[in-house]
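[audit] Reproducing an earlier prediction to check determinism. Same input, same settings, fresh worker. If the tokens differ from the archived copy the diff job will pick it up downstream; this log only records the rerun itself.
[audit] input (184 residues):
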Amino acid sequence: MTLTQYFVASSIDGYIADPAGSLDWLTQFQDVPGVGEHYERFLAGVGALAMGAATYEFLLAEQPDAWPYPDHRSWVFTHRELPVVPGADLVLTAADVTEVHTQMVAHAAGKNVWLVGGGELAAQFAARGLIDEIWLGVAPVVLGGGAPVLPHRLAQNLELTDVTRFGAEFVELRYRVPRATSAV
């Protein structure tokens, strides 16, 4: 069964990017034992990706000539023209997430759909009852502001299904999201 998963990391105070849109605060933890292997196992179970325009532009700025997900079709939700990485399997769309989600699940062919980034985009999926799980990595950093994990309230309670500790500093909380429409 295909699951739609919001796999994301945040600061202790719930931000996925600092006020300038940077992830520099997070990259310092990429060498924590087990994190890289955990990410690779997660990615192996993914058949399709979705992200917002800001996440896409961030990835382009980091690696302008190499798409980091060459083996995955990626849907980029945007209302403006964006450059496309040559050879990347990208779909730029302004369509409603419900319509696109159906396409993503079909393309995933039994693997999972990953909401890569963008709390606003994840909130749109959540508001339509389309997120099954939230995998929330928590870094021991307080940013004091920035882009929130989810900028809108979820009407349903989440069920904690797993906690994974990486080294002495990083933890991942895994939640099941009940299939109910939330308020945006």
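[audit] rerun output stored. Observation attached for the diff report: The chain has five helices and ten strands.
[audit] end
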